[in-house]
Task: structure prediction
Amino acid sequence: MYYQGAVESTANSESGSRVFLYEVVGLRQSEETDKTNYQIRQSGSVFIRVPYNRMNQEMRRISRLGGKIVSIQSMATLEQLNGNLASNGANGASDQGNVEAISVASNATDKESRKKDKKGNTMTEAKSKKHADIPVNIYRPKDPFVGKCLSNEELVGEGGIGTVRHLKFDLSGGDLRYLEGQSIGIIPPGVDKNGKPEKLRLYSIASTQHGDDLNDQTVSLCVRQLEYKHPETGETVYGVCSTYLTGLEPGADVQITGPVGKEMLLPDDPEANIIMMGTGTGIAPFRAYLWRMFKDEERKINTDYQFKGFAWLIFGIPTTPNILYKEELEEIQSKYPDNFRLTYAISREQKNKEGGRMYIQHRCEEYAEELWKMVKDEKTYTYICGLKGMEDGIDAALSAAAAKDGVEWSDYQKQLKKAHRWNVETY
Result:
């Protein structure tokens, strides 16, 4: 899904956290990156900067890629000894560096745990805070990551409306990482009507943090080519960035920024209930959620997250051929009928109770009692993504259901938002 918005200004900078340098040997390329003739890895050692709070995750990722960690060094220590290591490179790291790095990390953790707030209480909230390690703005517009397009596949079936593409980009050689529910920026080539470089456009990520290949080396997007009639001339106008992306050839360079976004992150609780309501390419973050929840290979990787709750997707599309990721969705429904419910609102094929077109708001009205019952459960989290026009209808349906219990929906919804249980990203 694409939407416009300001890039978040807060960044997880290396200077603001404890960072270590891993020297790794034996990392392999994937079959798809090999096809691009793109030099992903050089022979010999590879040096990877890793924040302290991602050390264990990075170790697991390196192991999955067939790599071996030769040494771990504290960046702060190395920079004191060698000057600007980021510019000059690193050599000669020893096994002793492992011991020193771990010691430094442990001491830093002990010091941080002893910090006091103004009332004298020990400040340990950062450790238990939900999604404490949220990557934000690792790459910025002035210095984007240059990845490569690995694949560009049509998602709309024959007879459908428009074109929607699933694009997969190679992230090898960079530090870009992300969580389900975040977005990345794409900077299209060329200049705008004022002769200035094109600005970035934000797109919701359609893959899990491990990527479609489950190797932590890719990120995927779901992009519809924007097409509309000029209100004055009647001329057909095509979106700049969406046209660039939907026509992108495998092997082409792509300028990527981010990630950004904290609104649409999933709860850590594997027993949570997840309501998803989306239209068109608003399916992007929901695909990432569902892969994380139900894909067998993902579940093998995410040993600390085994979804046991209930997920319900209400998906609005104009025609059956426009059901994006249809086979994936229906496979999950078939395999996990007790944990996943799939409801379509196919506007040009289905009728609402008044005989008009069926939209998401009509499905919400139809299932208002069930939705309200779920929303009242403190383990339920609701996510809405896609066209802004659906929000009023959803509110109206739940307002009527809540009123039967003597609850004012607008007040209750504010409480849900404050508890991060009502999450919206619309355009």
Remarks:
- The first helix runs from residue 31 to 35.
